[in-house]
Design brief:
Radius of gyration: 22 Å
Shape: globular
Number of strands: 2
Order of helices and strands: HHHHHEEHHH
Largest sheet: 2 strands, antiparallel
Distance between the termini: 44 Å
Helix content: over 70%
Oligomer: single chain
Strand content: under 5%
Length: 258
């Protein structure tokens, strides 16, 4: 890694020189080029139905990961441990995020094994199998949104280990698999000559979705106390689940007509 890192400045300089006309001056790519690329990507993202649908699914399944890490798990830890017990709250939070990550690890192992299975399949059958797997995991990811409801009322705990932490294992696996599959679908649907533009637009609009989600969670905690904010978040999973089922239906319909 050190050897590769030390070569990076030299390779970057060579790549930049290769882009310049002979005898030309170096013209840095600045904010104008970035905005132009983002604008092109945004037009494609919202204008092309396959990109738009896969992005909305990607955002729906990816959003909760950020909210869980940044607000929900830390706040739940404080609720369970009580004010003034920061170390105990950190342990509760650690169990939650650790078991969520365990689900994510299981998702990575599953994806690698599934990828090998797809590689051995007949190319004629492979596309249908991949789309069927995507639909299955989108449904599972939607169903596991119910894990958020385990934080809405008091449940048994075993020290720092809580029921919501255990529920986050299947939640983490389903969310990660669905998100990775939708990201792959998005990139496969993007025009080859504009993959950088649409990827930049995807990440930019994902940031907007995260900010909106953070604002919504902040409102929930401002509007209620105790288990109240978590009950509000659990209720918010109902329209999110309906949207996810609708997106799954749209992608299934597109695969039948493709």
């Amino acid at each position: 890694l050190v050897a590769l890192t030390l070569r990076m400045p030299q390779r970057a300089a060579a790549a930049m020189a290769a882009r310049l006309p002979e005898g030309g001056d170096m013209v840095p790519t600045g904010m104008k080029d970035f905005l132009r690329s983002l604008t092109r990507g945004t037009r494609l993202l919202w204008g092309q139905a396959s990109l738009r649908t896969s992005f909305l699914g990607y955002a729906a399944f990816g959003l909760l990961t950020h909210l869980l890490y940044w607000i929900v798990a830390p706040a739940y830890g404080v609720l369970i441990a009580g004010p003034g017990h920061e170390e105990a709250a950190a342990l509760v939070q650690g169990w939650m995020l650790g078991l969520f990550s365990l689900g994510g690890l299981a998702a990575s192992i599953y994806m690698m094994r599934e990828h090998r299975r797809f590689e051995r399949m007949d190319p004629v059958k492979r596309d249908g199998a991949m789309r069927g797997s995507l639909r299955t995991w989108m449904v599972l990811g939607t169903v596991t949104l119910a894990a958020m409801a385990t934080m809405a009322f008091p449940l048994p705990a075993w020290g720092a280990l809580t029921v919501p932490a255990l529920a986050l294992i299947p939640f983490g696996m389903a969310q990660v698999v669905a998100k990775l599959k939708l990201e792959a679908l998005f990139q496969s649907a993007a025009p080859a000559q504009a993959i950088d533009d649409v990827t930049a637009a995807m990440e930019a609009w994902m940031s907007v979705a995260i900010m909106a989600g953070l604002w919504g969670v902040k409102w929930a905690f401002a509007a209620s106390t105790g288990y109240g904010p978590f009950a509000i978040i659990a209720l918010a999973m109902l329209p999110l689940a309906a949207a996810c089922f609708w997106l799954t239906h749209l992608l299934a319909r597109k695969s039948k007509t493709a």
